[in-house]
Amino acid sequence: MEGVECTYQTKGRGFKKVSGMVSRDEIGFEIVRPIESHAMLVMKWRNDPESLKASFHQEPKIWNYFWKEFNEEYFSVPELFPLFITHQGRKIGFLRFRNQNDPIDPNRKCCEVSINIAPEVRGKGIGKISLQELRKIAKKRS
């Protein structure tokens, strides 16, 4: 089984540590909806210090402004809706897509992919596996 080691804590009645291998077939995707709970989770991950350091725009997002940006910009292209990366029913990452001009062939479709992995599961290869799985999906659709 090809996969990555994954350890994270889940909320519920206290905290529980979950550990194990994450295989390609355990990674799933869920459509992000323009609702507050989804926006708050994305903003939380976006405002994480490591995310800010890796971002082009390194200023933390402020809720009132981010909520408006989330609704107006993240869902502006219906065929490029954002996705959560999931593992065992838990949201562990976020993918956003934006149309871009193909730098080589103007007749091809191209998009920019932004990815953010939940801080507690970073460094486990989840982003790499997720992008590889998305590539397979995209190839099937083209």
Summarize the structure in words:
α1 crosses α3. The chain is 31% helix and 36% strand. The N terminus is likely disordered. The chain has 142 residues and is α+β, with helices and mostly antiparallel strands. A four-stranded antiparallel sheet has the order 3-4-5-6, with helices on both faces. It has a two-stranded antiparallel ribbon with strand order 1-2.
Structural class comes to alpha+beta
* Mean pLDDT over all positions: 83
Tally of alpha and pi helices? 4
Rg from alpha-carbon coordinates: 16 Å
Please report the total strand number as a whole number. 6
Give the low-pLDDT segments. Answer: 1-19
Distance between the termini: 28 Å
Strand content: 35-45%
**Silhouette:** globular
Secondary-structure element string? EEEHHHEEEH
**What composes the largest sheet?**
4 strands, antiparallel
- Tell me roughly what share of residues is in helical segments: 25-40%
What is the spatial order of strands in the main beta sheet?
Answer: 3-4-5-6
